[in-house]
Amino acid sequence: MTDLPTPERMERAGLEAWPGIEVEWDGKWVRRAAGGYTKRANSLQCFDPADGGDAEKRLAAGVDWFRARGITPVVRTTPLASASLNATLDAQGWAEIDRSHLYAMELDEQEPDAQGRTTALLDPGFLAAQQTLQGHDDALMARMRALLAVMAVPAVGIVVERDGVAVASGLMAVADGIVITGNVITDRTRRRQGLGVAMMRTGLAWAKTQGATVAALNVQADNQAGMALYASLGYRHQYDYTYRFPRQA
Description:
The chain has helices spanning 7-17, 55-68, 83-91, 124-134, 138-148, 195-209, 224-233; strands at 22-26, 29-33, 44-46, 75-77, 95-106, 116-119, 155-162, 165-175, 178-186, 214-220, 236-245. The protein is α+β, with helices and mostly antiparallel strands. It is globular, with a radius of gyration of 18 Å.
């Protein structure tokens, strides 16, 4: 079994695959903003455990940066976060939410679903499937489209249909040989029909044609169904991360 990429390589691939509309670096700390669409694309993150100098001052600058954009300050804390940053968050009483896992696997050949298709990210059919299945309103969809429009790496939307109706959807993007999956959703009235697996295999088959050798994704620790789905495909737990925000945001 080949060793999977390090957390740093995984996180940097994730940054390319889900970048934010604005991206600004402060040493090895990065701030990204995307109009508030998803915490990951609107967060501060440290990419080097050794980069902890002036943590309190730099965190304050990050808070001001987010608030100037009308976004609640959020810090994504991974194994790459410096001890000084974590200590500062603790001292200031930042709350912790959405404990999550990074899952990954070597990517083997996959068989796409017969009624699955991949599309451009801004394809109307893909966007309609996402809006219907996710239950997004028009304002949230506008923020989603704005983020999708700036994605620069190879990426597709995925839609699986049954009887001409979209029943599962997601998106995948390939960066540094790693395919990152997001926005996974299935029709809540048609669970336990293998639709999530069908969608994943359809997208992973596409990723293989793009040269991806590793597949990775994020899943919340309380999403037992999601973890079971991904484990059935061969994904394995790699590391944990959380999001933190000021209690008086």
